[in-house]
Design brief:
This protein has 9 helices and 8 strands. It is an alpha/beta fold and about 220 residues long. It has a domain of about 110 residues: P-loop containing nucleotide triphosphate hydrolases (Rossmann fold, 3-Layer(aba) Sandwich). It has a 5-stranded parallel beta sheet, with helices on both faces. Strand 5 and strand 6 form a beta hairpin. Helix 1 packs across helix 9 and helix 6 packs antiparallel against helix 7. The chain starts with a strand and ends in a 5-residue tail after the last helix. The mean pLDDT is about 90. Bound molecules: adenosine monophosphate. Adenosine monophosphate (AMP) binds next to helix 2 and helix 3.
């Protein structure tokens, strides 16, 4: 049986950071729809351009498009034993579609850690977030997780940049959208008995320790 993990949490709760750590510890691929959409930035197709415009506004990409992107990603061989979803599902139809997709191979969502963070803390964290211009998995926060040298990635020395959709207006909108459209998923997974709530307002190491415990993965 595979291990399919859905990481939930408002933007800024540390989902991306924790998913990158978990990917290493659990040996599972990190499937992030936001990352998949951002990777389409340079494509010239009308669909890719439309997606970039939606992301800039802080709106959600339509469910059908999002589900199609996940269907294609899940069909790749590295996702056959499990995956860590980050930023997906974000709506009830997406959650139902994910259940159906996994059921096609006899799988299901096994566990849903929820990184819980207040709205105020989320806004403060997003405005101080920087990512590596070469590899968006290298994420920093000038307040809570600064790089060793200002503006430079510790891992590969590339310049850091703010995400184009991390403007204060777009960030506030994404956070409101989380509480409006995504928070109902907490009930959905709670009823299935797979939700695990984790206090995200602590250090990266403390949150990782709780996550590994929730997933029954040894810390070392
Ligand atoms: P993220 O990196 O997860 O914050 O996603 C960045 C942006 O990509 C979001 O603000 C949405 O515009 C879009 N996006 C990412 N994942 C989804 C999803 N599951 N459903 C709809 N839109 C998404």
């Amino acid at each position: 049986m595979g291990m399919y993990i859905v990481l939930m949490g408002v933007q800024g709760s540390g989902k991306g950071t924790q998913a990158a750590i978990l990917t290493q510890k659990a040996g599972l691929p990190h499937i992030t729809t936001g990352g998949l959409f951002r990777a389409m930035e340079s494509q010239e197709t009308p669909l890719a351009q439309e997606i970039q415009a939606i992301m800039k506004r802080g709106d959600l990409v339509p469910d059908a498009t999002t589900i199609q992107v996940v269907r294609e990603r899940l069909a790749q061989p590295d996702a056959a034993r499990g995956a860590i979803f980050d930023g997906f599902p974000r709506t009830l139809p997406q959650a139902e579609a994910l259940d159906k997709l996994l059921a096609e191979t006899g799988q299901a969502v096994n566990v849903v850690p929820y990184l819980k963070l207040s709205r105020d803390e989320a806004i403060s964290r997003i405005s101080s977030r920087w990512e590596c211009s070469l590899d968006p998995h290298h994420v920093y926060n000038v307040k809570t997780n600064p790089p060793k040298v200002v503006g430079v990635c510790d891992i590969d020395g590339a310049a850091l940049r703010q995400r184009p959709d991390d403007t204060p207006e777009a960030a506030a909108k994404r956070i409101d959208t989380f509480y409006e459209k995504t928070a109902p998923l907490l009930d959905f997974y709670q009823r299935k008995g797979v939700l695990r709530e984790i206090d995200a307002n602590r250090s990266i190491e403390q949150v990782t320790a709780d996550l590994l415990a929730a997933l029954n993965i040894p810390a070392r």
